[in-house]
Amino acid sequence: MENYTPINNLVYIGIGSNIGQRADNILTAIEKIDTDKNCTVEQVSSVYETKPFGVTEQGNFLNAVIKIKTMYSPAELFVCLKQIEKDLGRQTNVKWGPREIDLDILFYNNLIYTDENITIPHKGIAERDFVLVPLCEIDPASVHPVFGTAVSEINLPGSGSNIIHKITTELPDKWTKKNIIRKLSTSPLKV
Fold this sequence. Notes:
The chain has 191 residues and is α+β, with helices and mostly antiparallel strands. It has one domain (9-185): 2-Layer Sandwich (Alpha-Beta Plaits), CATH 3.30.70. The protein is built from 4 helices and 10 strands.
């Protein structure tokens, strides 16, 4: 597999939740990724409240993007992320439907890859402001391997914004539930 090495693979992961304690679901997912011996969370974007995409008759989401380094191959990382989703109670399987947690591999190095489970880069990046905005916040110069352009230069289609507002500024280097919940609790939004 091209662009895969067993150490220090740079990966961006999109995170979303609109069921239950959304902020706690996101924080727990980030903690589970960071405590996995084959992953290290390098950076966490702000958290955004967003309108649902696709199926609009459901609750609003909280969304963020994280940058990690991993020793996993793309397939191994996919399995790891799906296990975290399961551990956090994800049971919904409706495309674009409500979910306790959603973890999507956005970029994996500069890999272009598709199999029966995953497509890398994620095919929805250029259509979703709730992915593109937090991704640009972390690394605006990151190049989309299919488009060959920096993510900060990708123009969203004119379908309108899903982002309602930013909830937090960038999170601390080593986040704790106490610090995150304190930041989120200052928002008028029930998280």
